[in-house]
Amino acid sequence: xxxxxxxxxxxxxxxFSWAVPSRAAGLDDFVQVDILDGGMTARGTxxxxxxxxxxxxxKTYWRAPxxxxxxxxxxxxxxxxxxxxxxxxxxxxxxxxxGLRSIGYKDQVVLPIEITPxxxxxxxxxxxxxxxxxxxxxxxxxSRNIDHTLDANAPRNPAIxxxxxxxxxxxxxxxxxxxxxxxxxxxxxxxxxxxxxxPHTGGSELAVFEPSDPTLRATEAETRRQGNTLYxxxxxxxAAGGAFALDRSQMRITVLxxxxxxxxxGCLPG
Length: 270
Hints:
Layout: H1 3-12, E1 31-40, E2 46-54, E3 59-66, E4 73-75, E5 85-87, E6 93-97, E7 100-106, E8 108-115, E9 124-135, E10 139-150, H2 158-165, E11 169-170, H3 171-174, E12 178-185, E13 189-197, E14 206-210, E15 216-218, E16 222-226, E17 229-238, E18 252-256, E19 261-265, E20 268-269
Parallel strand pairs: 11-19, 12-20
Antiparallel strand pairs: 1-2, 2-8, 3-7, 3-9, 4-9, 5-8, 6-7, 9-10, 12-13, 13-17, 14-18, 15-17, 16-17, 18-19
C-alpha cells in the first residue's frame, strides 16, 4: 500500500473506524473490481475502464474525497506501450455521515481510461496497482492488482459510454461566464476565495478546490449562492509545511449540484 494512501488512512481514522476484513468476510464481499474493454477510438487511442461494484450500503471515493474519505491512487509502473493515460471521473455524490461530508460513489462506478499507445498498432498492457477505500459502518482499505491487455478490436462498450456521458460539464457547456479567485496568506497556508458566475446547478451546491500541486490540499469549501453568482472559500495547506506558490490558472474548481456538476479549470485574479 503506497504512502499517499497510508497518510490518508491516518487522517481518516480520526473520524471513522478502519478495519481489515476478517476471513469470514473478505474484501470481495464488499466490492468487486473488473476491467472493461472499449476498443479503439477514431483518434487512435485505446479505451478501457475500471468498474467497481459495491455491496448494498457501501461506498467508495472520488479523486477529491472530502473530509472523511481517501482518494483512489494508481501505480501503472508495470504497464507496456502506454503513453498518455487519462482517467475520466463521472460526477460523484455528496454523502453526509457522522457530521462529516464525503464525496464518492455508491452501488457501481465505472472509471473510463483512455490510453495513447507509444507505438501505434501494438498491444497495450495495463499493469499496476489500485489502492482505494470502501466504507459503510466501518471503512476498509483495499488494494487490487491490475494486469490486462486491452482489446483494441473490442466493440463499443455501453458501460464506458454511459460513464463518459456522466462526466461533469465543462465551463463552456455549463454557461460559466467568469471565474475569479482572490488569495490571502493565513497562519497555516493560503485562503482562496472564488467568485463564479454560472447558472444554478441544483439543490445545495458544493464547490471543491483541487490545486495542481499534489503536495497541496484544500479544506472543505464554504459555498453560497447569490443570484447567478456562486461564492466559495477554502484554505490551501501544504502537507510538507513551509511557504508555497499557488497557480490560479491551474486551480481546478468542481461545482457539485443536484442536477449536474461543472468542471472549471483555472480562475483569474479577482
